[in-house]
Amino acid sequence: MKIIESKSLLFGTILYCIITANAHAQGGTTTVTQDQKFEQLLAEKRKINSSITINDRYKIQIFNGDSETSKKTLTDFRRDYKSLDGTIVFSTPTYKVWVGNFKSRIEAERNLSELKKKYPNALLIKPNK
């Protein structure tokens, strides 16, 4: 009996080695395709995140009031001043339109004097962190 068991164990081991020697893992390449709109959405999100960041820079507030008027004010501002970035910030119960991201107070004051021609209630702010 022991000889038969030994032979079947040996046969099983050899068979197992032959089968596993011929086995291969999955190979090939993976191609990921994504919608072009996804990249546009990510770019827009990065732009929004960079404009919302509150840091040690100066901003100019050109409007303080209701939602609809703040949206209209921001749209008008973006049409007239393409070089400056603007965003709407909600501070209960009003909406504020902040523009610019100035490193120094002097630079912000120069732009403030220019913006006061169109937005007489504009004021210089330095948002807290």
From TrEMBL:
InterPro entries: SPOR-like_dom (IPR007730), SPOR-like_sf (IPR036680). Keywords: Signal. It comes from the Bacteria. Residues 1-25 form the signal peptide. Pfam families: SPOR. Residues 86-125 form the SPOR domain. One of its GO terms (molecular function) is peptidoglycan binding. This is Sporulation related domain-containing protein. It comes from Flavobacterium noncentrifugens.
